[in-house]
Design brief:
753 residues; alpha/beta; 9-stranded mixed beta sheet; two-stranded antiparallel sheet; 11 strands; 8% strand
């Protein structure tokens, strides 16, 4: 029995009500299958709709990314949102983990480790042109599980000089990766298998995950980290991600953040009041704007009370930061508060003596503390509102309308059968004639819509192919062409490597040049190319959405006209239409379609695989110059100086390095271009077309097949007729209550605007 509930006043109750009503409808359909004239697949379309709603409500995720520069307070802010010290604050800058947090029933940390293949692949990439290490033979690779290989790598790392471990005043990414893998191997090796390993820490063991996040030698083995926290602020489908610092020295970390941002619905950008808006912030915000997603950002100025003499001083700083942000994003939504103060002020949070003393001191400054508290409340209110009124409302409205169409269709089906069972044979015949006419018309519409959409998708795919090929063309001024230009224009100041040549020889210098080149190229790709690629993909998604929307408009009117004609015909026979006002078909939302279908944008990171020929050819030239030098001595000619010989060999090595890099880039973008076309855009276009087809014709239900069988039973089988009528009468009330509940849910969703 379906019970009536009180009006709903929250998103959580709306969602629960939808889930219950959806389940009630599935149960009713199961009961109707026991009717003697009903075929096994009579309700497959409605059941498919209900199962789809059920699955999508369980899997839908709203993602919020917390981003900003290193040490801006991202982890502290995330902790404050969840009311506990769950994330390690001040984790190292080398870790490349995006930590994802959701509300759950039990305190849980899930650590997803890389596979041995992924680990060895990373090490191989870091070892390109690495000196002092015997190279594997052709076809072989480094294997960290071999004791001899680890010992050899450790010895080679110890041989490197400081000039090879530090570049641009920071440790080289490659040396950090290699030493981290070696240092953490013994601790992690027993946890890993051939495939990715998932390790869980629950309740009292939850804190153990911090050891992996805060230790470079352990964090390097992690692929993903997700936490579940018992908290009432956010529902389980909302994911808050604490992202790595945007100014990390490793450009691959930036690529990871970009990948997550392509899936996010809201961005919280954190700026430290100690530093204001730095150059790193401006660069990162400009990049997000180039990606086309900065409009979905909220800005938090995370203030440090100890840095500000007064509230007036803080407000002056806020005004300056806002002025800087406006240059990039007009009318930014800004909030200023101390994330640490809000965290330490959380009821029931255990505090250290130092933190307790700090909190007491801050509370004495009532003006700053009060301002921070009010701003924090305002931020949480706007954050919740943006999540709920925006994305969440769209999802619920979509489900409510689809459920209403299914529920009203089932109710009308029941009413039709009730009317047939209570009429004589002549009345049944007239009804059947009208319904047959409608179904013939509906079938024509289905055929026209399907044929047109299939043809449109073929034409669209051709246009998408043209767009993608043009964008990734080697002559393009946006992507591959710009990367080629960067490679060819990259200048090496060979005199800057004189000391490296003296201390480490040719191999050491070649390795250092390669590291600097790769760092520069990876940074260029992450900062300049990836955002362009993401923006391009976004524009193509919008093209698919607009293209199919334009096609759908006349068909939407055709369906509505057919339904109106059907309702008039049924009403003329004294029967209930049962349909009410048909809802307007929602404008297509390509992002929602992408998410519910599980289609993923291929990652844009460039894992360049450089050939060993870079080093081989450079060494060959070095040997050639040595022979020339020796011949010169014999002939008592002017001898090429030793370092000059090294420089000339380096020049040849750099030339080869650039050529091999161009080949690597070309192959990568060739694969990436084809993946974008066939594994993403074509699939997305087909799926969007299927969603549009369903949205257009799901109101044109096929009532005729079951009614034909029922019509025969009305005339010939009185016992079956009576039993069928009993079941139909019982189902009428249930269907009416379900339709009523769905209508009230639709109204509740509209009231949340």
């Amino acid at each position: 029995m379906v019970e009536i509930v009180k009006p709903m006043d929250s998103y959580r109750s709306i969602k629960e009500e939808l889930k219950k009503t959806n389940q009630n409808l599935l149960e009713l359909l199961s009961e109707l299958k026991f009717l003697p004239h009903v075929t096994e697949n009579a309700f497959s379309a409605w059941e498919k709709t209900c199962m789809s709603i059920q699955k999508q409500m369980a899997e839908e995720t709203i993602r919020v990314a917390v981003v900003g520069a290193i040490k801006s307070g991202k982890s502290t802010l995330t902790n404050a949102l969840f009311g506990g010290d769950y994330l390690k604050r001040g984790a190292g800058v080398i870790t490349s983990i995006v930590t994802k947090i959701r509300t759950g029933n039990q305190l849980t940390a899930r650590l997803n480790f890389k596979s041995w293949e992924e680990i060895n692949d990373e090490i191989d990439q870091a070892l390109v042109l690495f000196p002092y290490l015997k190279k594997p033979t052709e076809g072989q690779r480094f294997e960290i599980r071999q004791k001899e290989a680890r010992a050899a790598l450790k010895k080679a790392l110890e041989t490197l000089g400081a000039d090879q471990l530090i570049t641009n005043e920071t440790r080289t990414t490659q040396s950090v990766v290699l030493s981290s893998y070696l240092n953490g191997y013994d601790r992690v090796s027993t946890l890993l298998t051939l495939d990715n390993t998932l390790l869980e820490y629950r309740d009292a063991d939850f804190e153990k995950h911090r050891e992996f996040v805060g230790n470079e030698s352990l964090a390097v083995f992690l692929k993903d980290l997700s936490l579940e926290i018992q908290h009432e602020q956010f529902e389980s489908h909302i994911e808050i991600a604490d992202c790595q610092g945007s100014d990390s020295p490793n450009p691959l970390h930036l690529a990871m953040i970009q990948d997550y941002l392509t899936k996010t619905h809201l961005i919280v950008y954190v700026v430290s009041s100690r530093t204001g808006l730095r150059q790193a912030d401006i660069k990162f915000l400009s990049m997000i704007k180039k990606m086309g997603i900065l409009d979905n950002a909220l800005f938090v100025v995370n203030c440090d009370f100890s840095e500000h003499d007064s509230l007036e001083n803080l407000k002056d700083l806020i005004a300056k930061i806002e002025k800087d942000i406006i240059l990039i994003q007009p009318n930014p939504e800004m909030f200023t508060f101390s994330a640490l103060y809000q965290l330490l002020n959380t009821n029931g949070l255990p505090l250290s003596t130092k933190d307790r003393s700090k909190l007491v001191q801050w509370k004495k400054d009532k003006e700053l503390a009060g301002f921070s508290k009010n701003e924090s409340r305002r931020f949480e209110s706007v954050l919740t509102d943006r999540i709920q009124r925006g994305r969440y409302r769209l999802l619920l409205k979509n489900h409510a309308e689809r459920l209403w169409i299914a529920a009203s269709g089932v109710a009308h089906w029941i009413e039709l059968h009730h009317d047939l069972l209570t009429k004589d044979a002549s009345g049944v015949t007239r009804i059947m004639e009208k319904i047959d006419q409608h179904q013939n018309r509906a079938q024509q519409i289905r055929s026209i819509v399907k044929t047109t959409l299939d043809g449109a998708v073929l034409k669209l795919k051709y246009e998408l192919k043209t767009d993608v090929d043009r964008f990734f063309d080697i002559r393009s001024v946006t992507t591959v062409g710009r990367i080629y230009a960067f490679i060819r224009d990259y200048k090496v100041n060979y005199s800057a490597y004189r000391e490296v040549i003296t201390s480490s020889g040719f191999s050491g210098a070649m390795y250092q040049i390669f590291m600097d080149f790769k760092q520069g190229l990876d940074t260029f790709i992450a900062e300049s190319i990836n955002p362009e690629v993401i923006r391009f993909i976004k524009s193509i998604e919008e093209k698919i959405e607009s293209y199919l929307e334009t096609i759908s408009d006349p068909f939407d009117g055709m369906v509505n006209d057919a339904l109106a004609e059907y309702n008039r015909s049924i009403a003329s026979l004294g029967m209930s239409t049962g349909g009410g006002d048909q809802p307007k078909r929602h404008k297509m939302n390509i992002q929602w379609i992408r998410e519910v279908s599980g289609i993923r944008i291929p990652q844009a990171d460039i894992s360049m695989r450089y050939s060993a020929r870079i080093r081989t050819e450079a060494v060959m030239h070095l040997g050639l110059f040595s022979v020339v030098q020796w011949m010169g001595k014999l002939m008592k000619k002017q001898v090429v100086q030793s370092k000059e010989k090294d420089f000339r060999a380096l020049e040849k090595g750099v030339y080869r390095m650039k050529r091999e890099t161009e080949k690597s880039i070309s192959l990568h973008f060739m694969d990436y271009r084809e993946n974008i076309k066939f594994q993403y855009l074509n699939k997305l276009a087909e799926t969007a077309s299927d969603h549009l087809y369903e949205a257009l014709i799901n109101r044109l239900q096929d009532y005729a097949s079951n009614l034909q069988e029922l019509g025969r039973k009305v005339v010939s089988e009185q016992d079956d007729r009576a039993r069928t009528l009993d079941i139909i009468n019982s189902s009428r009330q249930k269907a009416a209550l379900i339709v009523e509940r769905v209508n009230r849910t639709r109204e509740s969703v509209e009231m949340t605007i």
